[in-house]
Design goal:
The chain is an alpha+beta fold. A five-stranded antiparallel beta sheet has the order 1-2-3-4-5. Strand 1 and strand 2 form a beta hairpin. Helix 2 packs antiparallel against helix 3.
């Protein structure tokens, strides 16, 4: 499993900000289109076959919703490929690291300009603590 130093994680913040801007916009669009489809009595899941007999505007809504969902999946996938754990699709992630020799997580949420918090593995976001002594976090040279 890849681990990150604070510096490595901070270098990825612009990538995360950009990626989650796109994911969040796609989430809003997918939710709006899902609501519009539901108003038409269409509870189809994303990716379901779009019947040809549907009116053109209805087919376009389903296709647009499916494209938005695909953009969400691709954005989250690009984050996961970096070895970063996605905790919420609206932009909450954890970076595996070590603090004083123990595995912990560096924590970032959408809108933060840098990695400024960490938490124990079992605590999650509710247990976030400010990074007061960066020297206690190990460098990750060989990943």
């Amino acid at each position: 499993m890849r681990t990150f130093s604070i510096e490595e994680a901070n270098r990825l913040v612009p990538f995360l900000q950009h990626t989650f801007e796109e994911v969040r916009a796609a989430m809003v669009l997918a939710a709006q289109l899902t609501e519009q489809l539901a108003a038409r009595g269409d509870a189809s899941p994303p990716g379901a076959i779009v019947p040809e007999e549907l009116p053109a505007d209805h087919r376009q809504m389903r296709e647009a919703r499916d494209e938005a969902v695909q953009r969400i999946r691709e954005g989250i996938g690009s984050v996961l490929e970096q070895g970063i754990e996605v905790k919420r699709p609206d932009g909450l992630v954890d970076f595996p690291t070590r603090r004083s020799g123990r595995p912990v997580h560096l924590c970032w949420r959408f809108g933060e300009t840098s990695i400024s918090h960490w938490h124990e593995l079992a605590e999650g976001f509710g247990g976030r603590r400010a990074i007061e002594n960066p020297g206690r976090f190990e460098q990750a040279f060989l990943n």
